[in-house]
């Protein structure tokens, strides 16, 4: 016992704890030095300035543990940052990471966190020990001497000065450098402030949007029967759809449908659900995202001209814009609202709701929006296991060694989506003498340990090709084809043009429905001969100084897009 006490005797030495706390609270800075693709001088600044700043703060109390407890928020951010690096391998906590905390339902959170146990346990043990040492430091009667603190304060201020000078050099030599974006933890604190600000704006949404009008005008005969269905997929990436050339036959049913348009070069403007889906459901896009706080959604545009509207979701409501825009419908149903957080139901439940609506709805004009659960992790819970085509598909953990099982389960979920969409189209096609169309697009894609980067899931601060490249499908009925051949000709002509999904859905659907509004732009409609590919942007909240970024991915991701485009003329 005496030997053990001697080994841990250092914990009673306030000078040693002084150094230990400085090192521990700046661990993310050392990790970011390795993970970030920034100029070397920026990396050096990201160590010298934060280390010196925390060094200085530690000199302000007689017991270093007291200051560490005062800085608890930074220690907690460190823990989250380390888990983030474990999951994505790079980047700092982005705005979307914070917003996901208030928009992700309990079931999804449990599924994800349950598979991040190694990272969570490591972070809990590491920073739990730090807090334990801090408490021990406070309770220890020994204190840092005035001389020691003065000496360390002098050294730390010299370090702060050097850091300031180097940051000045960075500003001069690197136009992209910014303290709020490139210096940890300044950047994560700034992002937290932005997230809080956006949450506040979201809370005030109903007040700000109450008087909003699209001033929609219908240009077609009110007696003509029309039916349009917008299907929003979840976490489905284009590369795993057989219809786009995937080696596995994951879309056997869709490939049998001759009247289906599969757009090949489509990217999402966000790799997060809480941003991408509201942009799909509205006239808002990456270019004008801030207008979301006072605009209504596409359902209201149809409501204004007398359409019977419905919003059916297989996801739990989360008090986000998805809910707000969905609740604009004449009838809105969140299937999981009355279910246990961890209870699962396939998207078949949405087909039942659609059938009920179509069987009883006497309106000539119908617009339905479906929000599926699609291919969101945990993939094996998204399809009936009796229909599993690719096995083994039992996913026990999000780890590289289970890549085969993860991909099999994911592909099974895509195959189920294929079955779901084919049955929906058949149901809509059953409405006789009706001009009808079904548009399907996924909110974003997914990483599946595709290359040496070993990226997994989505919502990473820096999106990959697999997270942004999404499927985009449009089907039209024979009645629609006969009446609006020009729309089909435009769709066919635009099949392989670069498309930003969130930008074109609103305009394409209104164009196909013959609806006009001051917010409609033909140039953004795939059903218009006037469609011209526009610059594609994504919302990059990792780098808040450049919130709106042109799609400019890492070299390996750009090569993947180029390789994909070579398949098509």
Over the alpha carbons, how many angstroms does the gyration radius reach? 27 Å
Assigned CATH class of the largest domain: Alpha Beta
Q: Segments where pLDDT lies below 50 for 5+ residues? A: 1-7, 542-548
Helix content: 40-55%
Structural class: alpha/beta
Q: If you average the pLDDT, what whole number results? A: 90
CATH topology grouping of the largest domain: Alkaline Phosphatase, subunit A
What would you call the shape?
elongated
Report on the biggest sheet: 7 strands, mixed
Number of structural units classed as domains: 2
Compile the SSE list and pairings:
Layout: H1 2-7, H2 14-25, H3 27-35, H4 40-58, H5 64-70, H6 72-88, H7 95-103, H8 106-113, H9 117-139, H10 146-173, H11 179-182, H12 186-203, H13 205-209, E1 217-218, E2 226-233, E3 260-263, E4 266-267, H14 273-280, H15 298-303, E5 308-313, H16 321-326, E6 331-334, H17 348-360, E7 365-371, H18 403-429, E8 435-442, E9 447-448, E10 456-457, H19 465-468, E11 472-476, H20 478-483, H21 485-493, E12 499-500, H22 501-513, E13 515-516, E14 537-539, E15 548-550, H23 555-565
Parallel strand pairs: 2-7, 2-8, 4-12, 5-6, 5-7
Antiparallel strand pairs: 1-13, 3-11, 8-11, 9-10, 14-15
Helix pairs in contact: 2-4, 2-9, 3-4, 3-6, 4-10, 5-9, 6-9, 7-12, 14-22, 17-18
Could you characterize what this model shows?
By secondary structure, the chain is of the alpha/beta class. The protein has two domains: 2-201, no CATH class; 205-565, Alkaline Phosphatase, subunit A (3-Layer(aba) Sandwich). It contains 23 helices and 15 strands. It has a seven-stranded mixed β-sheet with strand order 3-11-8-2-7-5-6, sandwiched between helices. Strands 1-13 form a two-stranded antiparallel sheet. Strand 5, helix 16 and strand 6 (331-334) form a beta-alpha-beta unit. Helix 2 (14-25) packs antiparallel against helix 4 (40-58), helix 4 packs antiparallel against helix 10 and helix 6 (72-88) packs antiparallel against helix 9 (117-139). The protein is elongated, with a radius of gyration of 27 Å. Mean pLDDT is 90; it is low at 1-7 and 542-548.
